[in-house]
Design brief:
Blueprint (H helix, E strand, L loop, with lengths): L1 E6 L7 H17 L4 E3 L19 H15 L4 E9 L2 E10 L2 E7 L22 E5 L2 E7 L16 H8 L6 E6 L7 H16 L3 E5 L1 E4 L2 E4 L3 E3 L6 E2 L7 E6 L4 E6 L2 H5 L16 E3 L2 E3 L1 H18 L4 E6 L3 H14 L4 E5 L7 H13 L3 E4 L3 H15 L5 H23 L1 E5 L3 H6 L12 E2 L6 H14 L5 H5 L19 H12 L5 H6 L4 H13 L1 H4 L23
Parallel strand pairs: 1-2, 2-3, 7-8, 8-9, 18-19, 18-21, 19-20, 21-22
Antiparallel strand pairs: 1-14, 3-4, 4-5, 6-7, 9-12, 10-11, 12-13, 14-15, 16-17
Helix pairs in contact: 1-2, 6-7, 9-10
């Protein structure tokens, strides 16, 4: 048997598009010698479907699509879709062929943590299925079913092991249909799960995963096979659509290809500008692959623009590292012709920040405009002083400036149809070091899941290959430039100390006592915890954040405002 493993990017709710794409991919796989096409979890409707599953017409739409595919498929296909049975909905696998279609598997373990809430919508299946095709027997599992023994999840049962034990004869391999989002920490965990399952069961584990970005969630694909006591073999390049042929008789990866419509569909094209390969760095205990993260964020930008029917973006350049990194990512994702920068200096802006912003735009051939906010700022201050009979000072004066910049950015967005890309980082969002309705605005938060130290690491990895960002930007002390001589360190702890606490608190889920026991300064811990709590209301009003960590601000961060 030859499997055509289709690393596919379904569109959520676009059943007809997904069905047409899968039909074309399966038939193309047949031309390459595949005898079974395999697609990711819920590939017919896209993942995560959320309240789409409450749409009363969805069941009939899926039935019509399955009927059409059965009539036109050249080889059988395994694909994911909901199954409605006796008033219950299952996350199911369908066998579709010229003989018709039927449900052959139901997901047993339903994740209900972080960004997942499947138990809100689905009923758990009883057990994993064992199927047979072309003389080979394989166990079919759906995504989380492989994660029963993951130490961080702790499920009470192992559906894969139970199904293997109940099988009446030996099983040749385990097949897993997945929709597993990308995260920096998740990639090595996933590899460990695949490898440990192959070692424990003594047979290969074949894994096919969804690719593409869906709002805040980025899916890397990572379709691969794990052999017992061998390293996991990646079959498809991450962050790209394609088909991998895997032969079950020889246990060999034969070749990869993409189906014809993908070659000409610019929306679905995954050929990113190749970012320079900086050396991998270890950031705060996490493996930080600069090339991988660059591709993930570029994919996130590209697909988000496509989903919102946008083509162009606008970025406010401050002369700092955050907006510089966002501009580089936007150029890689969309091309310089689709990126515009606004430089909006005030009387507190340094000559260095303006000059470096201009230099950055020239390096990447990005169009830019210099729109001083000084006159607008003076007008607002004058109006307020007249009405209030006192001069606005301190935080009031400082926050007027980013809100004026937000006004200019949104005016440009409305006038020219360009989405404003937010440049705030995770450190700022965590402790509230940003202005609501000011620099927290925009249509998409590109680096909102990267800590400040990680933003610097990414920029330095790029610059190790070629100066993509003027070195003076990276060498200058971080500053919002909202008052004379202002530095971030006036209000915040040094970023390496701050980020270490934040990562242990957010990704590590340590409370105050745990943070102190982990070696962090008690006074600093209490200060950071207080800033995080007081800024929760701001995070509820952030634009969608592209998720690249195991816990980002967004659907995976659910905290009360009080």
């Amino acid at each position: 048997m030859r499997l055509g493993l289709v690393q596919f990017a379904p569109r959520i709710g676009e059943v007809q598009f997904n069905a047409d794409s899968m039909l074309e991919a399966a038939n193309a796989a047949a031309e390459y010698g595949a005898t079974l096409a395999v697609f990711p979890e819920l590939s017919l409707i896209g993942y995560p479907p959320m309240d789409l599953l409450r749409d009363e017409t969805l069941r009939e739409t899926c039935r019509i699509a399955l009927d059409e595919m059965a009539n036109r498929l050249k080889i059988p296909a395994l694909m994911g879709a909901p199954s409605w049975e006796d008033g219950k909905v299952y996350n199911a696998a369908y066998w579709v062929s010229d003989q018709g279609w039927s449900v052959v598997g139901r997901k047993v373990l339903l994740p209900n943590y972080d960004v997942f809430d499947e138990s809100r919508y689905f009923q758990s299946g009883d057990q994993c299925s064992v199927l047979e095709h072309d003389g080979k027997k394989f166990l079919l599992s759906i995504c989380e079913d492989l994660w029963a023994r993951d130490a961080d999840v702790k499920y009470p049962t192992d559906p894969v092991q139970l199904a293997l034990g109940a099988a009446d004869s030996s099983v040749d391999f385990i097949l897993n249909m997945a929709a597993s989002p990308y995260s920096i920490q998740g990639i090595p965990r996933r590899a460990h799960v695949l490898q440990s399952t192959a070692n424990r069961c003594g047979i290969p584990v074949v894994y096919v995963n969804q690719v593409g970005a869906r709002a805040d969630l980025i899916f890397d694909g990572g379709t691969s096979v794990a052999y017992p006591n061998k390293a996991v073999q990646e079959l498809c390049p991450k962050f790209e659509q394609g088909v991998a042929l895997w032969d079950t008789d020889s246990n060999q990866h034969l070749e990869n290809f993409i189906w014809d419509s993908l070659r000409n569909d610019s929306r679905m094209n995954r050929d990113l500008l190749n970012p320079p390969h900086g050396s991998n760095a270890i950031i705060l205990g996490d493996h930080f692959d600069s090339n991988e993260i660059t591709k993930a964020l570029c994919l996130g930008i590209r697909d988000y623009l496509a989903m919102t029917s946008g083509k162009k973006v606008v970025i406010g350049l401050s002369g700092g590292v955050d907006s510089a990194v966002v501009l580089c990512l936007a150029v890689m994702a969309l091309g310089s012709e689709n990126v515009t920068a606004l430089l909006m200096p005030s009387g507190y802006s340094s000559e260095r920040s303006v000059a470096d912003s201009v230099a950055l735009c020239r390096i990447h051939e990005v169009a830019y405009q210099i729109l001083s906010i000084e006159d607008s700022f003076s007008a607002v201050m004058g109006t307020l002083q007249t009405k209030w009979e006192t001069q606005p000072t301190g935080l009031t004066e400082e926050n007027i400036q980013p809100r004026l910049r937000a006004l200019f950015l949104m005016a440009y967005s409305n006038q020219y149809g360009a989405m404003w890309l937010n440049s705030s980082n995770k450190s700022e969002a965590a402790v509230g070091y940003s202005t609501l309705y000011g620099d927290m605005g925009g249509g998409l938060s590109v680096i909102g899941d990267l800590y400040k130290t990680q933003v610097y690491a990414l920029a330095n990895c790029w610059n190790a290959h070629k100066e993509w960002i003027p070195s003076s930007i990276l060498e200058s002390a971080p500053s919002a430039e909202l008052r004379p001589g202002q530095l971030d360190s006036d209000s915040l702890p040094p970023y390496p100390l701050l980020d270490a606490i934040l990562m242990d608190r957010i990704e590590g889920s340590l409370d105050e006592e745990g943070l102190i026991l982990n070696g962090h300064d008690p006074d600093l811990v209490r200060r950071v915890m207080d800033m995080m709590k007081r800024s929760e209301f701001k995070r509820h009003q952030m634009p969608p954040v592209l998720r690249v960590s195991s816990r980002s601000f967004g659907r995976g961060w659910r905290r009360s405002l009080v």
